[in-house]
Each structure stands twice: as structure tokens, then as C-alpha cells.
Amino acid sequence: MLTSGVPALRALPALAGASLLILTGCQSTPDPVEPADDQPAQVAHVSLDPLDRLGSFNPDREAWARVGYRLDWRAVPPLGQGDRFIELDLLGDDVAVQSNDSTLSLLDAANGSVRNSNQLADHLATLTGNFRLGQYVVSSTSYDAFFVEPVTGNLVSRYPYGAVLGAKPLVFEGLVIGATTEGVLFAKAPTSGGFTLWRFGTRDPIDVPPVRVGSSIAAVTRTGKLVIVDGASGRLVGTNSMFDGCGTTPVASDETVFVGSLDQSIYAFSALDARMLWRVRTAAPIRQQPTYANGVLYVGTEDRGMLALDGATGAELWAAQDVRGEVLTERSGRLFVWDGLTATVLDPETGDVVDQVDLPGVRDLQGSSYEDGELYAVSDHGVVAKFVPWQ
Predict the structure, then answer these.
(1) Model pTM score
(2) What is the mean pLDDT of residues 39-65?
């Protein structure tokens, strides 16, 4: 049984005045609101009127089609006065969006309808992310985990971490793995009332999420220390050191941890003992999120653009000089790269640019899966949109 330390908070229904859904699919019906001709890409104030917000984000269908996607639906979850969405998490059948006042809205991934909206904490809480655990959606702040029933939005349980998290927790075999600002990795068992199974101290703050590598957990501290521990017991597997920490989340296969470091290097470490397998030096710190897929590590760099490196050896396969950002998906044998404004389609064999278009007004963009995944966007004005593979 999950323990409940607070009464259930009231879930806000998805009323017509608070949220709006527009289904697009393959229809040719025009959108009901035309966007303003001079709509800015960034705004300080978000209108509370759902139609105003919807009209502010009218994606260019031709541009999206050029990069292999079409609009499926748009939705407008509730937002308070002056609030904005700061977190987007894809949780299977649910799309979780969270605003800076700690309001969690859950959308049906199939059609965009707003299931519920629930303010879990206040403006002072620091969000660290949302994730699925069993039948619940868990919304995590730096201090607490809130267990939400996804159909109703009711808060079922809440438990404190007993420490301050520095990054989004990781779910490992039903356990919640946290990393703290005091440099402690820990595992909690939520179904046992938040009982702590193990703790491992690194003596250095951890600011980036831990990652799973095989049956182990890897974490990088602020100063660049890598620790790998057994996920079930917390037993130390191995350690290593870099000359600085990392500004992105490490990625991993079952055998290797890949780190883009602020010490101007890209590293690969063995999951068996944390031994360094290879290192590629760059001219500037790595601040663009790497992606690992099908034996290849894709990393955006400041000096040489997007690099494709052999995951086993670090050998450079190609470099796309003028391309920056993160590889989100591989669509019909083409890489989709997003840099916050521009979408670039690359040939994965050569790195040649197939197409490139600007997609203005998108604050966040995520892929549901690497292979032919859907794309979910949050606009500057709080519109959530789903794009599906086209052609």
C-alpha cells in the first residue's frame, strides 16, 4: 500500500473554458482561429483565453511535411495568470505537462483531450520531472514525490525524499533512484512507503540525471567524477574522473556510458568497471544533448557541428559542419535533428543535409521513440501539439 501523508488535492476538471482540443488528423478542415501576422516567437505573458492561445500557434503544415511529419492534434491545457509550461514528459498513454506553479495536466496521447489538471504544490517548488511507476504518474519536486491517479488526477500519496534532489529521478525495476545536491545516490521503494533500500555517497553534488546501464546505475558529479553502482544493492562497480562535469544527461547502452563533458571532451566508459574506453576532444564544452542509437553516438559540437561517432571505438563516421542540436528520431531512414528553432533532416550514412526548415514558436519538442516516433511540442503560448510521421 502507498502511504498518504496529505489529503488528496482537488483535481480541476477539463472544462470548456479552461482547456481546448483541436483534432487535425488527415482532415482538411481549416483551424478555427487564424494566427496574428506578426506573432512573436517569445512572449512574457500568456493569455488565459484558450482560443487566443490556440490561435498563437498554427504550425506551418508544409514545413512540417518537408521534415516528414503532419499535425495530428493541438490542445490547450489550463494555465494560471502569468504561468507557463516548463516540463513536458511522455508517459505512454499520457502526455504530462507541468507549469511553473506546479500544476500537472495529463493529456490523452491518442487524441489530446485533457484528462485532468491538478496543482500539486506551489510556485516555490522546484520541479525535477514526471514519470510512470506502476499504475501511477509520479510528479517529482526536489523534495517530494507526488503519486497521481492518471484517470482522475487525484493525489493518492506523497512522500518526502529526505534530501534535496539535484536532477530528475530514474525508475529502475520499480525503484526510484535519486541523486542529491549533497552528492548522494539513493534507491527508494515507493510501494513500501518510501523505504530507502540503499545510499551511496560521492561527496560532490550531482546536477544531472543518473542513467541506467545494464543492471547498474551511472551518475556524474558536478566536478566530473563518474560513479557506477549496482542498481539493486548500491554496491560500487567502479569510478573514474573527468576534468569537469557535464551540462547534458549521460546516455548509455547495456555495456557503455557516454558522457559529453564540459572539459571539451566526449567520453565512453565501460559499465563493468568504469574504465575509460575512448575519448574524443572538442574545441568547446559539450552543451548539446547526445543521442545513442544502433551503435552510433550523435553529439552536437560548437566547432564541427553534428558528429557521428562509432560507439565502440569513438572513430568519427561523419561530421555535419553547420548542424547543431539533438537527434530526436530516425524517420524513414533519416535523422531528425532539433536545435530549438530549426529542424534538420540528415542522411545517417553520410551526414548530408536532406532538408532544413525553421519551426518557430516551439518551446520544447520531444520524440516518443527513436524509430519513427511521434513528436510532441509545447508552444511559447502553452499549446501542446502532436505530430505524426507523414508519408
Answers:
(1) 0.86
(2) 74
